[in-house]
Amino acid sequence: MGADSSDMAVLGGSGEPEVSDSLRTFGAMVQALREHAGLGREQLAESIGYSKHMVASVEQGRRLPDTAFVEGVDRALGGTRALLAAAQHLGRQPGLAAWFRKWARLEATAITLYTYECRLIPGLLQTEAYARTLFNNQLPPLGDGQIEAQWTARAERQRLLRERPNTEFGFILEEGLFVRRTGGAAVTRELIDHVLEVAQWRNIEIQVMPQVRETHAGLDGPMRLLETTENRWYGYCEGQRGGILVSDAKEVSVLQRRYARMRSQALTSEDSVSLLQRMRGNL
Question: Mean pLDDT across the stretch 106-122?
Answer without folding.
Answer: 94
